[in-house]
Amino acid sequence: MDPSNRLSGEVLVTWPDWDQDGPDASRLLRRAGLSLRLAPRLRKRTMAEMLRLVDGVVGAVVSTDPFDARVIKRASRLRVIARIGVGIDSIDLDAATRAGITVTTTPGANEETVADHTLALMLAALRNLIEHDTSVRRLEWRRSGDSIPSQLYGRTVGLIGYGRIGQAVARRLRAFDVRLLVCDPAIDTVHDVEIVSLEKLLERAEVVSLHVPLLPTTRSLIGARELAQMRRDAILVNTSRGGLIDENDLLYALEQRSIRAAALDVFESEPPINSRLLLQPNVILTPHVAGLSRESITAMTCMAAQCVIDVLSGRVAFGTMNAPRLQDVTV
User: Fold this and answer.
1) Backbone dihedral angles phi then psi of residue 191, each to the nearest 5 degrees
2) Which pLDDT value is given to residue 44?
């Protein structure tokens, strides 16, 4: 970077896997003239902690920390929030826009990783992988009765949402010769895919996988009514956002065996998750890692760092989610 164009100021980094001495994202920010305030998010923050962390910073590379109106008001110098990932439900976008803060995400950086994890959860649930692993560790050798697994090949799989991640999942599923059902109001026709209503998808699919953002219109998209429409042998997979499913209704369905199983990477509260889920033998749980791989983390952190630099340099950043009012700002 031209020394005359060097930036100044401090960037808050809450992403827990940030490599402060790494050759990629950290170097990008430091070469631009910015310093780092590292505060990895390893648990929920209190409001007092958030207000202290954002005080005086000009940029933020964040995990799922809550940036509500109170936090944004305190962050008087903040000009960009670069969210690792694509979910912005933890950020008050309207408040950020009014304050002149650009919010960016990292689209395209972890879609294939999420799709890999989605397929892994489907296979783990169908093949009883967790149950068999636990059994063998107990020196058992269960190969009959209820322990016999199922196959993914030839199943009917329903994808709720058919954006880039849903399409990546579909590409993988085609190798298993499944019947693909898709519910997405933005999609009219897709080759080799049957477009159906949500009700029809739930009635027919043996595996249901969620791939939609968490919005007011999609919160509790799967509740008691929808779970009652699903097949008793169905498996519900969620690698999107926990709020898409009403967990109390899901717990009731799992306890009553009105659906076969669930495989969840995301939860209404993270962490801790609903303790009743830990007691369910017919649910597989992973700690919101679907979008994480060594490759995707490198791509996402570098993209977020570049977004911070672009916004502070007066450029439009890739992955920008809002259009804050223009201000004369010195950073």
Assistant:
1) -65, 135
2) 83
Q: Which of 288, 294, 295, 325 is catalytic?
A: 288
Task: Assign domain 3-109+294-312 to its CATH architecture.
Answer: 3-Layer(aba) Sandwich (3.40)
The pLDDT tens digits for 133-142 are 999 999 999 9
Name the catalytic one among 199, 255, 270, 295: 270
* Residue tagged active-site, from 45, 155, 241, 260: 241
Owner of token pair 């992973």: 286
The CA-CA-CA angle for residues 175, 180, 182, to 5°, reads 135
Query: Using one digit for the tens of pLDDT, what is the confidence trace for 67-79?
Result: 999 999 999 999 9
As a whole number, the mean pLDDT across the chain is 93
Please indicate whether residue 288 is annotated as part of the active site: yes
Rounded to whole angstroms, how far apart are CA atoms 300 and 107?
A: 8
* Residue 238 near residue 212, CB atoms below 8 Å: no
**pLDDT over threshold 60, residue 100:** yes
Taking the C-alpha atoms of residue 206 and residue 68, their distance in angstroms, rounded to an integer, is: 39
Give the other-Cβ count within 10 Å of 306's Cβ.
21
Residue 237 in contact with residue 210, Cβ under 8 Å? yes
Pinpoint the residues of the chain covered by CATH 3.40.50.720.
Answer: 3-109+294-312, 111-285
d(CA 301, CA 293): 12
pLDDT digits (tens, 9 = 90+) for 252-267: 999 999 999 999 999 9
Given the candidates 3.10.129.10, 3.90.1310.10, 1.10.10.10, 3.40.50.720, the CATH classification of the domain at 111-285 is: 3.40.50.720
